[in-house]
Amino acid sequence: MSDKIVRGRFAPSPSGRMHLGNVYAAVMSYVAAKSVGGEWIVRIEDLDRQRCKSEFCDMLLEDLEWLGLHSDGEIVYQSQRDEIYENALRQLEAKNLTYSCFCTRADIMAASAPHESDGAVVYGGKCRHLTMAERAALGTVRKPSTRLIVPDEIVVFRDMNYGEQRCNLLTDCGDFIIRRGDGNFAYQLAVSVDDAMQGITQIVRGRDLLSSTHQQIYLRRLLGYEVPDFLHLPLLVAADGRRLAKRDMTADMSHLRERFSPEELIGKVMHICHQTECAEPMSACDAAKLFDVGKIGVADCKIFS
Ligand code: GLU
Question: From the CA of 151, how far away is ligand 1's center (Å)?
Fold first, then answer.
């Protein structure tokens, strides 16, 4: 155990109005950090210029204020940090660990069997072996993405909720994209760089990102950053067991704000995450006093109706 202050974060992508899944990640990351007297910051992950809109971002920040979740530091916008990611990319290029990939999504799907139930595919490394001439010819057709070469190596970490996680980078994950063909830096690179540069020591987020953690740990090692603690939360599912999607209107923040006060919503989130016996309304500060990581569990959390 280190005696460094815990610093957590909430890192939403403003591609739509905040929904219950975001509220859950925001509240749980906040209470986890605050339960040990830590800090909590907000980072806007708006790298995808097509999908992320400033009006969604404004609403998101207003929704967080409404919930009483205040960032302990200035809000950082990934869209303003290209130079920083560029610098990290150059470090990886200098180690000869990157290559241009011209494969389309369709090429990749055709060449590999889906690896996990979520449809994630392991890239077989086709473009790793292109000759200079092949690369030049393909470059006239489309703009390449940049992939990171991964070794045949197992990454192991202990998640605070899901326990030990192991992944062979080569066979379970494959060389992964760190800059997309459209020029935008990829989530894996940006998140690893930002969490490290912002001094984040505790990452609390949904289980959908559990499998990304191995890539992020590998990237952090290459860039010389320490590895933080990870706590992944069970997925939120609708009462009938379906995974909660953004299109579920009842989970949309405008709808939630009409029906609940901030304290009621926080109380509900604490309850669906098994922190309390019943959904008592409470402030975020009071919720932090009750937080118990041991109570979260690994089963999907059913939302209220
Ligand atoms: N920006 C990501 C999302 O909204 C979350 C990133 C993270 O928590 O690592 O899904």
Answer: 25
As a three-state string, the secondary structure of 124-155 is: CCHHHHCCHHHHHHHHCCCCCEEEECCCCCEE
Distance from the alpha carbon of residue 123 to the mean position of ligand 1, in angstroms: 22
**From the CB of 12, is ligand 1 less than 6 Å away?**
yes
Q: CB–CB of 233/240 below 8 Å?
A: no
Which is more confident, 163 or 106?
Answer: 163
Q: Could you tell me if the CB of 209 is within 6 A of ligand 1?
A: yes
Give the pLDDT band (50/70/90) at residue 239. Answer: confident
Closest CA to 281 of 305, 252, 255, 260: 260
pLDDT at 115 over 60: no
- What is the DSSP secondary-structure string of 206-248? EGGGGGGHHHHHHHHHHTTPPP-EEEEEPPEE-TTSPBP-TT-
Determine the residue type at 167: C
Looking at ligand 1, which atom is closest to the CA of residue 212? 9
d(CA 148, CA 170): 11
Element (H, E) at 93: helix 82-94
Q: Alpha-carbon distance 206 to 236, whole Å?
A: 9
Q: What is the mean pLDDT of the chain?
A: 93
